[in-house]
Amino acid sequence: MPKAQETVLEIDLKALKQNFEHLKSKLQPNTKFLAVVKAFAYGSDACEIANYLQGLNADYFAVAYIKEGITLRKAGITKPILVLHPQSVNFKALLDYNLEPSLYNTKILNEFIGFASAEKQTNYPIHIKFNTGLNRLGFSEHEVNSIVIKVKETVAVHVTSLFSHLAASEDLNEKEFSLNQIQTFKTIAEGFTNKIGYQPILHMCNTSGILNYPEAHFDMVRSGIGLYGFGNSVKENQHLTPIATLKTIISQIHTINKGDSVGYNRAYKSEGVLKTATLPIGHADGIGRPYGNGKGFVSINGQKAPIIGNVCMDMIMVNITNIECNEGDEVIVFGKHATAENLAASASTISYELITSISQRVKRLIIN
Ligand SMILES: *Cc1c(COP(=O)(O)O)cnc(C)c1O
């Protein structure tokens, strides 16, 4: 890995391949793999990640919004792309770019069938989402009949898949609840398939579902966080490698005397003599204010340097009193050893939030 000369997010494709292969090793050979690349592939680089995974034969991709799907198509993704949360205002673009909508209530189902019919579509692939306990998006079990009737009335659409989402797949204290969700989904899928007269793809598991509920893999699984190197448990993390390393450098070192303050609002006041380093990364880059005032930390020459004072828009100051280092030295904010999961925990949040927050201002560097 090259030494950083500015703030940079390095993306390790070899680690991505290992994570992909590890997750695949948990599946039956014919279970399809859908790679979730929403939110810039969890803050990394959606086009690079999707292209690389397409090369490794990932079967499907998923994004949250239509705009994200268009970006992937323009970058050369030809595999099917599921849009998890399409907005009807963008249906024309969805059709133009051959993106596949998740439809989750009567309103959006009717809107899409109406739109696809007006556009003279036949057998346009749609995905029907069922709510089995998360209570976020999805049809209820009792709506199966009316969906099937509606779909059978038109030639415009074809139900490519039926799916649902687990609410607590990473939490084994909620195993009974998860098993209940799985059972409900099975019942829904059976009823739906019988009535519609063909077999859609069935899928339910996210990363922790893949790892904890092999009985719920069905025909396809949907993995996001695992690909990026986090398994939501100490045990599973051992088999996965974080693909992203956020690096920066030391811009300036200060000696702070007793009684001096550091940063805006004089939030830190020194009770002795200390050394600080100022780094070119701040809340506009994704290191939010909750990481300030001694909560968050970075690594310099393998040692932990806590953030002191308030996080600024473009900078943080860290305490380097006991660390041998110089202006220009490389700093690791998070990576394979000092992980994003640990840094996120320091501000009472989760890896998902920290990694998806790294703003587009930060340069991405792909390491192959
Ligand atoms: C984001 C998302 C996933 C991926 O979940 P991970 O925990 O990151 O593997 C899967 N399915 C749906 C519906 C999602 O919204």
Quick structural overview:
One of its GO terms (molecular function) is pyridoxal phosphate binding. This protein has 368 residues and is α/β, with parallel strands linked by helices. The protein is built from twelve helices and 19 strands.
Word description of this protein:
It is a single chain. The protein has an eight-stranded parallel beta sheet. Helix 7 packs parallel to helix 8 and helix 11 (340-346) crosses helix 12 (351-357). It is elongated and about 75 Å long. The chain has two domains: 31-228, TIM Barrel (Alpha-Beta Barrel); 244-367, Lyase, Ornithine Decarboxylase, Chain A, domain 1 (Beta Barrel). The protein has twelve helices and 19 strands. The chain has helices at 13-24, 38-43, 46-55, 66-74, 91-96, 106-118, 144-152, 175-196, 207-212, 234-237, 340-346, 351-357, and strands at 8-12, 32-36, 60-63, 81-83, 100-103, 124-129, 157-163, 201-203, 220-223, 244-249, 252-256, 261-262, 268-269, 274-279, 297-300, 303-308, 316-319, 330-334, 363-367. The mean pLDDT is 98. Pyridoxal-5'-phosphate binds at residues 36, 84, 165, 206-207, 222-226. Pyridoxal-5'-phosphate binds next to strand 9. It catalyses: L-alanine = D-alanine.
The coarse silhouette is: elongated
Low-pLDDT regions: none
Instruction: Indicate the CATH architecture of the largest domain.
Output: Alpha-Beta Barrel
Question: What is the CATH first-level class name of the largest domain?
Answer: Alpha Beta
Please give the largest β-sheet.
8 strands, parallel
Strand residues, percent = 15-25%
Based on DSSP secondary structure assignment, what is the total number of beta strands?
19
Q: What is the CATH topology of the largest domain? A: TIM Barrel
Tally of discrete structural domains: 2
What's the tally of helices? 12
Strand order of the largest sheet: 8-7-6-5-4-3-2-9
Helix content: 25-40%
Instruction: Say which CATH homologous superfamily of the largest domain is assigned.
Output: Alanine racemase
Question: What radius of gyration results from the CA coordinates?
Answer: 24 Å
Hetero groups bound? Answer: pyridoxal-5'-phosphate
Mean pLDDT: 98
N-to-C CA distance: 10 Å
